[in-house]
Amino acid sequence: MKQSNVNDILVNNSNKEMSDMQTKNQVEDPIIQESLLTCIDLANTDLHQSALLLKKACLDSGFFYVINHGISKDVMDNAFEQSKKFFALPLEEKMKVLKNEKHRGYTPLYDQIPDPENQVQGDHKEGYYIGSEVPRDDPQWDRPFYGPNPWPNPDVLPGWRETMEKYHQEALRVCKAIAKLLALSLDLDADYFDSPEMLGKPISTLRLLHYEGKSDPSKGIYGTGAHSDYGMITLLATDGVMGLQICKDRNAKVQKWEYVPSIEGAIVVNIGDMMERWSNGIFRSTLHRVILNGQTRYSIPFFVEPNHDCIIECLPTCQSDNNLPKYPPIKCSAYLTQRYEESHLKFSSYKKQT
Ligand code: OGA
Ligand code: NI
């Protein structure tokens, strides 16, 4: 894994762009520093100590690192290797596994536009969504976000499916360990989230991403536009090339963005909007984006959302007479469907474009 030089990127955000930036809807500070995030050791047997650390991180930004997560270097390296092989295929081959109505499969360049007010075109990235495999003989297979995955032809990419299934399984295990700490940090039983009703049949999605090009915020060009994640927890593994930025205060008059550096062996974790809703806005689902410096970049986010029919409503420990629930209860799959539709091209419009 190579670590990029921050200075390469900082040069691209020099003062000369400041005047252009003012033309955007959102004004931002041109000086971008590195964020110092909390690091949680998942091998620490003192869960209460880890939960305290986690609570601090979630009140501050909802972004942190985990170490000793148990995903071996081999499993991680294989996932990146196989991801690179997929994206290196001719477009015609990738289009054979184009994203379907269940939000699984290949998403071409510009498919997603999370911040249309500040983006002139979609994200400069291509991707591949892999959901939890729910076979056709499962009574729930036809629910939104459940079902079988499309897979690239095994003659073209031998071992690809197995590699991704292995990573998927390991990432889910890590998310369940984090879910225990989250529960403790919210004064709930450790198994509150890691229960059959909540994470028994989660909507968990592995996404492979491949970025190319150079971002130019002054012109509305981004690797990934500013957004917060929709779900409960996201694990983010990257190839070490810098690019991820967070903005802790989305309402600031002048937005301050900070780089999140990659740390060898650590995984970046952030909590998403569902967790913010559950915690009545106490825990932060922070705005983030990807700024490219011209280097090719690969990343693997893994999004965990609870069961399809789980209701996301204010947790008992996050409300009182003086602090009433701020968000109405909502069913997990309904919320996700709405968020995906807002930010992605419609499935039917691919055919017209290509
Ligand atoms: C995302 C995301 C960041 C990255 O996919 O939601 O924020 O570094 N990705 O690719
Ligand atoms: Ni994100």
TrEMBL record:
Pfam families: 2OG-FeII_Oxy, DIOX_N. InterPro entries: DIOX_N (IPR026992), IPNS-like_FE2OG_OXY (IPR044861), IPNS-like_sf (IPR027443), Oxoglu/Fe-dep_dioxygenase_dom (IPR005123). Residues 202-306 form the Fe2OG dioxygenase domain. The keyword Iron applies. GO terms for molecular function: dioxygenase activity; metal ion binding. It comes from the Eukaryota. Keywords: Iron, Metal-binding, Oxidoreductase. Belongs to the iron/ascorbate-dependent oxidoreductase family. This is Fe2OG dioxygenase domain-containing protein. It comes from Eruca vesicaria subsp. sativa. The lineage of its organism: Eukaryota, Viridiplantae, Streptophyta, Embryophyta, Tracheophyta.
